[in-house]
Design brief:
The complex is a heterodimer of chains A (262) and B (63).
Chain A lengths: L26 H33 L13 H28 L2 H33 L7 H22 L3 H15 L2 H11 L19 H33 L4 H9 L2
Chain B lengths: L5 H6 L4 H37 L11
The chains are: A mainly alpha (262), B mainly alpha (63).
Chain lengths: 262, 63
């Protein structure tokens, strides 16, 4: 029988000696901090995404070359950005976890993967629906499209690998290795339209050069991207809460949380 | 406002299927993600409870 419930020694012992932001490195403290933050993140994400899509679909003019179909841009480009940056974040926390051996880093790595998978899928889906009317095909094996497909496979492989290994410590290390090796694909995606002669158009916005978009288009795109970012961060943190509870279910604080949630 | 009416907006210059198919899938994906997250949190809370209630069925499970 279990006699671990309400054991004060296992409940957030790192809280008392933690100062400032470091205290959130404790999964226990992170659980409660995220709980307070989540409603605000979710509400602002929905609001900003709605504003961005409103500008993009209602205010921004039609494109002089593509007409109305270009409006797919307002969801396609933000999902692409999220898919790429979430992977870099996953690899970063994988590296931190391997070097520092901190529990929360691996939990974050695990929490990032499904949101990245969804974003990569949405990027490919919206891209296919944009490709058909403008290129005449849903799909081509061109460098940009293929490297994003590889990104999706890396995410799916990561999730499958983590769930296939029962021992969570071994699953973390194997997943972290895959995440780190796969990160070389991200610069390949970004520079693919420069390195190879691709069907995919070049960057609409890049650092150090004036944007090629009309002001309303740019505003709609940036607001949509910011909104999707806020929602992605909210989803990752909400999932981190689940992972923390799943892994710390033996602790006294988790038992008290579950009692309170009844 | 760049539209003269609702039907013109829905038609998207003849590309309605592609534009709304894109936006629709993004909305479905985002809503679906939060539905799954809500289920997962509830399941996690249930497992914590059954663990502390001494339910044998939750003992063998390792992450």
């Amino acid at each position: 029988m279990i006699a671990t419930s309400h054991d004060p020694a296992s409940a957030g012992h790192s809280l008392s000696n933690g100062a400032g932001w470091w205290k959130y490195a404790s999964p226990h403290a992170a659980y409660f901090a995220i709980g307070r933050l989540l409603p605000w993140l979710l509400a602002s994400g929905i609001g900003v995404l709605g504003l961005g899509l409103g500008i993009g679909f209602l205010v921004a003019p039609a494109d002089h070359q593509q007409g109305e179909v270009y409006r797919i841009l307002f969801v396609h480009v933000p999902t692409a950005w999220v898919a790429m940056v979430v992977y870099v974040a996953m690899a970063f926390w994988a590296g931190v976890g391997l070097v520092m051996n901190t529990r929360l880093s691996f939990m974050l790595m695990q929490a990032l993967a499904p949101t990245g998978t969804l974003s990569a899928f949405l990027c490919l889906w919206t891209g296919a629906l944009w490709g058909k009317p403008t290129w005449g095909t849903w799909w081509v094996w061109d460098a940009r499209l293929t490297s994003v497909l590889i990104l999706l496979f890396l995410y799916v492989g990561f999730v499958a690998l983590q769930s296939a290994i029962d021992d969570s410590q071994r699953a973390d290390r194997a997943g972290a290795l895959l995440a780190l090796v796969g990160v070389v694909n991200v610069p390949v995606i970004y520079f693919s339209v420069k390195w190879w002669n691709t069907l995919h158009q070049g960057a609409s916005i890049s650092l150090g050069s004036a944007p090629t978009l009309a002001p309303d288009m740019l505003l709609g795109l940036l607001a949509s991207a910011l909104g999707l970012w806020l929602l992605a961060i909210a989803a990752v943190l909400a999932r981190l809460r689940c992972v923390v509870l799943e892994r710390e279910r033996h602790t006294g604080w988790a038992a008290r949380v579950a009692e309170g949630a009844a | 406002m760049s539209w003269r009416g609702a039907s013109e907006f829905v038609a998207m210059g003849g590309y309605g299927i592609y534009v709304w198919g894109s936006l629709g899938m993004v909305v479905v994906g985002l809503v679906g993600e939060w539905v799954v997250l809500t289920w997962r949190l509830r399941a996690a809370l249930r497992r914590v409870k059954s663990f502390h209630a001494g339910d044998e069925s939750s003992l063998g499970e390792v992450e």
